[in-house]
Amino acid sequence: MSQTAQQDPALLEALTLLLGSDTIPNRLNAQQSQALCQHLDCSPIELAERMLPLAASFSFAPKSNFHVGAIAIDQQGQLFLGANYELAYGPLSGSLHAEQSAIFNALSHQASALTDLVINAAPCGYCRQFINELAVASQLKVHFNQQNYQFSQLLPQSFGPDDLGVQSPLAKLNITKAEQAVDFAKASYAPYTQVQSAMFAYQGEQRLAWSCYIENVAFNPSISPLLTLLSQLKLNHLSLDKVERFELWEHKDNQFSFKQELENFAHHSNKTMVHYDYP
Ligand SMILES: [Zn+2]
């Protein structure tokens, strides 16, 4: 925090003034981003670019030590921050990329259509494929290294959801009325396997964070509920110490399970986990 503050004291000061707190926010609503743009005399994209070090501060990268920040902007002008998250153990595939983290942050807060994605590094090929799952991919603008691109420039002649016959690509998660654990599992985006899976972190009966499964047409850039959940905890300034119990909720007919993945993590972090199969 202090290091980031030294880099852009004007931004930090404006944020503290506006939010009445010096905690780095993981998102800004439309009024907040407008007020900041006015105060700092900058455009929403410039604001997001200035906020990238704050987004990257949510990164957990014990393996690469490469801290990526990404910010998704929706049609209403809301900003959603995201950062990469790596598991400290196991193979390199145990990682969530910043773009995925920001997009899940937006989806989980029922963002309107995403218009822009601002990143502090070039998006890797894996993320370009992940982004291509979005219903808005063809209109999305991507900003990095002081350059602005239409997403289609970054992934020409792409393989997309329509190649596997998916008519409704990733747009919104159906969580408007979600309360019960199964409601979040049912909100999974899994048009290729119909798998329903959600994970939760609890402190006593308090739900600290949740996540659900998001799938990709190229399969590999699909994101696991575990990494998404850990990223959500980090974005909400919640340390693992607070978590007393992990829960995994899956449909009993799922063709695969995330149980092993969560079991491994629970074992490595000395936590309790509970697995539920629902009909
Ligand atoms: Zn990536």
UniProtKB/TrEMBL annotation:
It comes from the Bacteria. InterPro entries: APOBEC/CMP_deaminase_Zn-bd (IPR016192), CMP_dCMP_dom (IPR002125), Cyd/dCyd_deaminase_Zn-bd (IPR013171), Cyt/Deoxycyt_deaminase (IPR050202), Cytidine_deaminase-like (IPR016193). Residues 43-162 form the CMP/dCMP-type deaminase domain. It holds the Pfam family dCMP_cyt_deam_1. Keywords: Hydrolase, Metal-binding, Zinc. Belongs to the cytidine and deoxycytidylate deaminase family. NCBIfam families: PRK09027.1. Homodimer. This is Cytidine deaminase. It comes from Agarivorans gilvus. The gene is cdd.
